[in-house]
Design goal:
The protein is of the alpha+beta class and about 210 residues long. The chain has a single domain, classed as RNA Cap, Translation Initiation Factor Eif4e. It has 6 helices and 8 strands, in the order αβαβαββαββαβαβ. The chain has an 8-stranded antiparallel beta sheet with strand order 2-1-3-5-6-4-7-8.
């Protein structure tokens, strides 16, 4: 059962429960998440510096509140080029400099812009569900968040982890992500260390691990 099915199953189970005073139990009970999450939006406004363009849209801590936020905002494929969505555990900012991120890195998925309408939203939603559903099991504490970048030349989806030195854990997370997103075995995912990205002199960052 994938992440989408797990969370949808929660709703089905609630609907089947007995009512209280003639009203559905769902009116009284929400399904808490293991963490509180913050959804960020980066607006590509060249009049402001990078940090001023990065805003928290909403925070949530239940399954129902996640869906309320997700169904209200524009889908990732519809936001303007140059803009980003980020979902991070509350207290972690979507930037390399954050103390929770600075020793970590990201699994990076490059997406052809021609497949934006067919793959991007599906991959992004499944990644979000994996985050809030703690789909990486005991390795979920290593997860900081995820970012989707909408760019004219091609979109990117990155899963950010806390400690890039934990090779075995990083590889396992990459393999689990690949399975969850149903990415073909012929497609290679690359892991980039944030410190390498911050020090790079060209347009391509060094790849530390692959799956």
């Amino acid at each position: 059962m994938d992440c989408v099915e797990v969370l949808e199953k929660n709703f089905d189970e609630v609907e089947e429960e007995e009512s209280v005073d003639g009203q559905n139990v769902d009116n009284y009970i929400k399904h808490p998440l293991h963490n509180v999450w913050a959804l960020w939006y980066f607006k590509n406004d060249k009049r402001n510096d990078w940090s001023a363009n990065q805003k928290v849209i909403a925070t949530f801590s239940t399954v129902e509140d996640f869906w309320a936020v997700y169904n209200y905002i524009q889908s990732a494929s519809k936001i303007a080029p140059g803009c980003d969505y980020s979902l991070f555990k509350e207290g972690i900012q979507p930037m390399w400099e954050d103390e929770n991120n600075r020793d970590g890195g990201r699994w990076l998925i490059n997406l052809d812009k021609r497949k934006r309408a067919t793959e991007l939203d599906k991959f992004w939603l499944e990644t979000l569900l994996c985050l809030i559903g703690e789909a990486f099991d005991e390795l979920s504490d290593e997860i900081c968040g995820a970012v989707v970048n909408i760019r004219p030349k091609g979109d990117k989806l990155g899963l950010w982890t806390r400690d890039a030195s934990k090779k075995d854990a990083i590889i396992r997370i990459g393999k689990m992500l690949k399975i969850r997103l149903n990415i073909s075995a012929e497609v290679t995912l690359e892991y980039q260390v944030h410190k390498d990205n911050s020090l790079k002199t060209g347009s391509v960052a060094r790849c530390s691990y692959t799956v």
